[in-house]
## 1
Amino acid sequence: MPRTLRLAILSLLAAAAMCAQVTLSGRVVDENGAPLSQARISVRKGDEAPQTVETGPAGTFTLPLPEAGTYRVAVQRTGFFQLPERKIEVDTGGREVTLVMNPNREIFQSVNVGESSSPVDPDQTEQEQRLSGTEVNDIPYPATQSFKNSLKLIPGVVQDPSAAIHFHGGAEYQTQYTLDGFDITDPITGRFNSTLAVEGIRSVTVLASGESAQYGRGSAGTMAVHIENGTDKYHFTATNFIPGFDTRNGFGLGDWSPRAGFSGPLHKGRAWFSDSITGGYNTGIVPGLPRGQNQNSSWSAGNLFHAQVNVTQSNILFGDLLVNFNSQAHSGLGPLDPIETTTSRHAGEVLASVKDSHAWRSGAYVELGLALHRVLHQSTPQGTEPYIISPEGRSGDYFVYSREHGGNKQAFTNFFPPAIHWAGRHQLQTGFDFEALNYNARFSRTSYQIIDLEGLPESVTSFGPPSDFHLTNSQAASYLQDHWIPVKPLAIDVGVRQDWDKLTDRVVVAPRIAASWSPFKDARTKLHGGYSVIYDPANLAMFSLPSDQQPITTPFSPEGMPEDPLRTTFLPGHDLHLPRYTLVSAGAEHDFGHGLYGAADWLRKRGSGGFVYAPVNGAEPVTEQQYYPGAGIGGDFELSNLRRDRYDEYSVTVRQSLPNQYEWMVSYVHSRAVSNAVLDVSIDQTLQVSNNFGPMPWDAPNRFLSEGYLPLHLPGHFKDFAIAYLADWRTGFPFSIVNPANHVVGTVDAQRFGSNFDLNLHIEKRLVLFRYRVAIRVGANNLTDHHNATAVDNVLGAPDFLRFYGDEGRHIVVRIRVFGRVK
């Protein structure tokens, strides 16, 4: 080979090797060294267009650069403050860096802490909504000590009069609730009953359409709660530590909701903790009842402890301990339900969990978790007198005594191998989880009577001997998902999930696919869509009915004479399968700059095979169509897969993040939630319905929501004032008309309450008082004194038929928060 050619080849190889070595690599971590996935790194030289790369699950990234030199590097991640551009020198050997981001958390100082990261993530394919801990603390929603109440600040989430939370048209038990990755769903009912101190919450993420194969067991989505971490500096807050006073029932102690949070290092640079304590006393004054008979007082106490230990730079250990107790004196008290008809309720909860994670420099990442979750529910009536249902309301003592224990032992693992580069970039993810659930219960029911308009008995229902039963279930799931970026503007998620449930003994397979596309170079606009199949889990409470007491109803003739009794029997189902839901979603997002963001989303959900007890063997009432399973008395009711649900949602949201953590949001949601089994047939369900198709009890076709925390510029020396507001308007919830025999007249939920409107307006002043940072807030809830009814006399022919009750009135609210001592 000629010498000139050899020199040319060697020069080209040397140049290629030199170019291959010019890379910028490293890790993105939070302030405690935990890796941050999906952080977007932007690198540019001079005025050239920036190059971007996203971190993998281990927080690592590698970006080839055209040449050595001085580059400007910036980092964004949802939920964290932007890491602004900084100069980094990259030589011919490349450069490795560690970039540290600070989470969006509440601060006291009125200084610009930097802008929040853009909410538009070009590589995020799921429909995701977030609620930060700052919003939870700043927005004046009713009962601000309750984290559960704060969830209705999220568009698409509504709260019914019983305080149950409904995500995107689903029942409360159709959402999976997690705390740092662990399932905190009530193992008995599938509902969300955990009391969490709002000071301990960093953020809440709601995944509505469920395209990620990692998530399942919830057709209404997944609610993921992320806990606040401690740092190398000690920090504490205290809120509402001074009891209030109330004059609605005479001068006396009012609602009191003391909360405190304390965090700091266990070992600086290595281990940290955060502990949040919540307590509460609520007077529970109910309008429309006489003084002395109108108070449903309750108290609660809870503690959430979180710890992080960095065993090594790549191995991190997390631990959580959640403990809750609450008690309610007169649950169910209302204008039509006087104090003797109520029950005393007590509940407790303990969750202990540990999670270990390991990240490799190659980009691989694995996490393993173990947890034990226990719950207790006890309900005690005020006495043993017969419970009476009449056109004027209820009287006597409620008929159900119960004591229930539930538990959930759970384990999971998630593994992310190093990214694969073939026809683009592939980030695989696989995992497995297992849950062992148990349910122990004792029920003792007395009887209830239904009285007609003339005061004569329609029927009397009694029950067999007290029941004492034990029920278990096991659930296992595995999944595989590929996050594929074939070209930079396009991201595709393809996955499959496999679920198994012991109660149905079926294996089901759920495919998932979603995509996002950023049509413009600045990646401020994103279009996304997806399709997913999700299976709801079996519910222990529903499967337990055949083991429980069975009702015996004696009807009466028009002359008031007893007739032959009718026995109602609940039977286990045969050849059951898990309820199947298909979801299709689409949407668009745009970052307008200056913190202004807009989104439009569409969601379509169709459910089939839902669990419902349907009449068999001539059970009354006989339904005209088996797809509309009715609820009646007498005969056999067998657990079936006859339930069908439909939900459609269209939403528009605009929000803006401003300096100093001020922000505002406006949203409109149009939706429709219907089912062929509106009423869940159960032993305690006293209503009878032949046509069970209609809107769900929490259906709200139109909802307008606006919230904000904004600076208030007053003349003179009035500085550091802020205004916090919440404006929430929605269509009234539906209800049914019943006749004196408690039969639903016409179709179920054919009527509606009037529209509901809340306008809460508060003014807050932050100052230093006695060397402590303090925020004092004064305001009014339901400022317009709108009549937001919560109850109605729905008995056809009753003297007060269609009279609405429950006017909450206008409330004055005072809140004091302490942020720690000035150093």
## 2
Amino acid sequence: MTLARRLDGLPLALATAGMYLNQTADSFSDYLRLYNDSWNDLGLYSDGPLDYKDQTLYSTWNLSLQRVRSQDPGAAELLRLMAFLDNQDLWYELFQAGAKDRALWWLEAVKSKARFNRAMSKLYDYSLVEIRAGSYSLHACVHDWTLECLNRDLDNEIYEIAVHCIAKSVKRKREQEYWVTNRRLFPHMHRLEHNRAKGWIDWSSLDMTDLHSIGYLCSQLDMKAAAEEMYVRALRGKEKAWGPEHLSTLATINNLGLLYANQGKMTEAEEMYVRALRGKEKAWGPEHTSTLGTLNNLGLLYANQGKMAEAEEMYVRALRALRGYKKAWGPEHSSTLDTVHNLGNLYANQGKMTEAEEMYVRALRGYEKAWGPEHTSTLDTVNNLGLLYADQGKMTEAEEMYVRALRGKEKAWGPEHTSTLDTVNNLGLLYADQGKMAEAEEMYVRALRGKEKAWGPEHTSTLDTVNNLGNLYANQSKMAEAEEMYVRALRGKEKAWGPEHTSTLDTVNNLGNFYANQGKMTEAEEMYVRAFRGKEKAWGSEHTSTLGTVNNLGNLYANQGKMTEAEEMYVRALRGYEKAWGPEHTSTLNTVNNLGLLYANQSKMAEAEEMYVRALQGYEKAMGMNHPSTRRIARNLNALRVK
């Protein structure tokens, strides 16, 4: 069955395989291995059945090609070229995109759609290509023959044209429905990568501009390793040819920064961004749109690292520069909208919910007007609005945003793209917060399977979802399953990031919570202390992530009856949060509430009431009267006053 699928049901190919197996002691699996690994030898030494005017399967195609070449040499070369592309969905514009400054036969073959169709018709006459609606295709066996036989001696020019066709067809994010073409290019990119991995082609001779475009395409299609290789090769070539400060060099440096940031390689990402920013400021000046793009990227990076002051500096600087362009561009220019969107991210991280929502809504309206409701930039903002509403406890609005983002991303990228899966994961978080455990698990499992397929089981994005499943199982009191997820996430992150990386330490902190909930106080304290020391070393003693673990240590000590130690932790966390987030941030208020609980347990009623009132007023302002946290604090205050 496997062999039949590989031969795609071609009758003559199946008959040839049967004849070969009758003449040898080989098994079906042996033949399949020979077909995949030694195709040319298999064709040379097989006595296949006579057909097609007494010719074997392999010589029939050779004879047909000879006839095509005698009648239309360009058509024969086109067939050789198709070996380096996927065998499905071959359309004129793909071939025509790479026509400039190429071989004369190539320019002739694609000079018009009519000429191209005539060449393809000639191949169709000899059953070498098939006609599909709007495109052409090759049978899988014919496709194998074009690579193994027609390109036995590699012609660099042929495969460079194939790469050039793909590179010149790539659409950028600022183009309408860019994802449609880029997804269409995916099978062809996958074929190139397959050929490279097999050692059949060499990337070293390729044009560096093409390499940059291929790197961009790979990053769009979740082919991160290939994207990095392409960008690095392109960068080396550009540095050598044009110098380290050429604008094209800087563009590749900036894109490498984006790729590293997506991979979680924060140090490398910052190095790339800073280098790109300095070069662009020198070449273009501080207010050029390209400079502003890198400013925004640095801002995002700093925000993800918890460096809020540095992030805000980047965004404010970008906005200041944009003010001079508003008259020319208007408030809905893409550079303006990107900065507005990123400011929304910053305000959300700072707990400035009103300001964050204002930025997101402004960006969303602008993107919808500029790009349409289904553009991926629009959908990213929709997703972030979902995150904001979820943090505010506006569950209905959050779900509406997530569902809209999910449907749009499924349509644009497909159900298994990592951008789609990020929104699936967010829906899981929402359902978990709503107590919809079955729905949450369904989302997490879908996200996990997709990420395992796209990234692999040990990728950090995969492990984040594993960690979320651990949280879900812990909340369901499925302790064995929860611990399995946490331990898997921890081991994977230790391997990927090292034992002291902040992502690793987040899972260590979660294990502390897990053990604390089980009453395993010794193990919980061990985890918290490890997380605290690691975060203090990585982030500093006043970073909000460090303070989160300090707050957890306070909870642990309070549960152990160590009131002095608990108060010390809470006060430290509170001072740090007030400095980092301000007195009205929800993280600050959560620690205020914890102090209220501690004082109430110590019968310090006045101090407890002061904390509860402060926390309640803050939550009412930030989240509203009906938020679960607001209601919980109100219950604490009422219970205290009853006493």
